[in-house]
Amino acid sequence: MLVNNFLILKKQFFNHLHAAVRLVVLLSSLLLAFPLSAQLEPGGARAEAMSGAYVALANTADALFVNPAGLTRAPANSITLFYQRPFGLTDLNYGALSGNFSILSLQAGFGAVSLTSPLFSEQTFVGALAHNFRNRLHYGIAASFWRTSIQGYGSSGSLSLDLGLLFPVSHDITFGMSAHNLNRASRGSDPLPQRINSGFSFKTSQRLILNFEIHKETKFDPEMRYGVELLPFKALAIRAGTANNPRRFSAGFGFSFKNVNIDYAFLTHNELGVTHKFSLTFSFKKRILQIEKSDPFKPETDAPHQLYLGGKHGILVPININTAWVDQLTELPGIGKRSAEYIIAYRKQHGSFVNKADLQNVKTIGSAVYEKIELLITINDKPE
User: Fold this and answer.
1) The model's pTM
2) Does 339 fall in a domain?
3) Do 149 and 121 contact (CB within 8 A), yes or no?
């Protein structure tokens, strides 16, 4: 009996010791270098599930934390919340709120991040503006105000500036880059971190996206990040990712229902254990990204450039009217559920559309509606 009690106490001691060591590691980075939240991925569960390989794909409200240029590709005005307990530490709570909305010809974003523990608290407030030049170059800037309070040390605040860029290399490849803390802000005598993220997002099909990113932070070696997003069904997304510095693996999934998205991710760390993250997104007014006929990619054919157009996972336009389901078709301006059902019924009766203009033969769709959506639709898997 005495031996058993000793073994139980020994196990409990080492469990508490392990938790304390992990907390000390995190607190040490806070006290010696820079804000702890700067070392945690500020994006939602979608980005976390792909190990942070999100700089070229960012198209949701939390893009302002990762790449503010991504706000221009947000499919709808929305609000996103996320929560996690980093590395399973019960004394640490990390959460954020972000939102995006249209203002004149710009996209605006706002966000707040909170990291708390019994010994310290840290809040970050972010505002961002983004714009795009002829759908060829997307750019955005974000301002972040950091405020850190440490028990026994007082509190301090600082303001940092971030810049983000997105450049569609082709219809299926996008290059993204973001630079954080351009003004070299500091907390007292300690400089805040500066980092640059750059990478590519490859859309290999309507349902598969591959991401590659290089993350470089001052005082640290470059980190390679890889992520994949698969949409086996229109309401389900499966994601996974890996990175090498520190070595880690992540995965997760997302469900969508009407205007609500629920995302989950878990991240494994060799030294600190597992982190679980949850995100909840509410979408409101959907945005239609207009396309000019003088598209810079193929001006000789007036082919439309693929852009994000509404949709719960950011459906790409042009939409293939020969394969699109009801939810996709209703993303088009002037196309309601009834018209979408007529389109599908027409395909069943007459077969695939041979020409886009044949869409005018569908009941409820006339020339006025067709003119609105002509550049947003296709009859092939690739732009014409």
Assistant:
1) 0.69
2) yes
3) yes
